[in-house]
Amino acid sequence: MINRNTKIGIFVLLFFILFGILFSFIIYADYYFMKNIDPDYYEINSNKLNFVIDSIDNKSKTIDIVGWAVKKEQDLKTVETYIVLKNIKTELYYKIGTIKRGRKDVTEHFKKYFSNIYNYDNCGFFAKVSKTHLRSKGREKYEIYILYLSDGNKILQGTSKFIEKENL
Fold first, then answer.
1. Are residues 27 and 83 located together in one domain of the fold?
2. 55 neighbors 127 (Cβ within 8 angstroms)
3. Number of domains observed in the structure of the chain
């Protein structure tokens, strides 16, 4: 026979396990699922960003995008950068979560050209999206945007880069 304290301990343990699973799913959904956004809420193509898309890897089932973005002459204190795909046909915008990547090379590059030294060490990003999450049927073309919310900014910057998704 199990005593009362053991039952309470098992209940608390199960509660924290379920809470951990739920929290993990929320983090997974935030990163891997695409969300529609309203572009009117952001400052579009303001030319306030320096950015580079280093690579776009359009694999068979996923699309990987690697790059960096910084606001001109502003230290990067908080990092909140996303990739946005704009469906050319429907003109809908889909936000994709990114993973922060260290880019000390960007800080070093800008030190060469500006007298003020800004810290851009954490400006890099990596985005991966499953092609099954793209809400389109058949062959679709998407323009890649950078959604830059770091340090209180609300900038949606086009990159003039495109990807295509074919019917799986």
1. no
2. no
3. 2
Per-residue CA distances from 75 to 72, 115, 119, 123, 124 (Å): 9, 14, 5, 10, 14
Closest listed residue to residue 154, CA positions, set 80, 65, 66, 52: 80
CA distances from 60 to 17, 63, 131, 143, 165 (A): 35, 8, 8, 19, 10
Count of alpha carbons within 13 angstroms of residue 78, beta-carbon side = 7
- Asked if residue 129 and residue 72 are part of one domain, the reply reads yes
Domain hosting residue 16, numbered range: 1-32
- CA separation for the pair 129, 85 (Å, rounded): 10
- 97-121 confidence digits (pLDDT tens): 898 999 989 888 888 777 667 888 8
CA 81/CA 96 separation, integer angstroms: 9
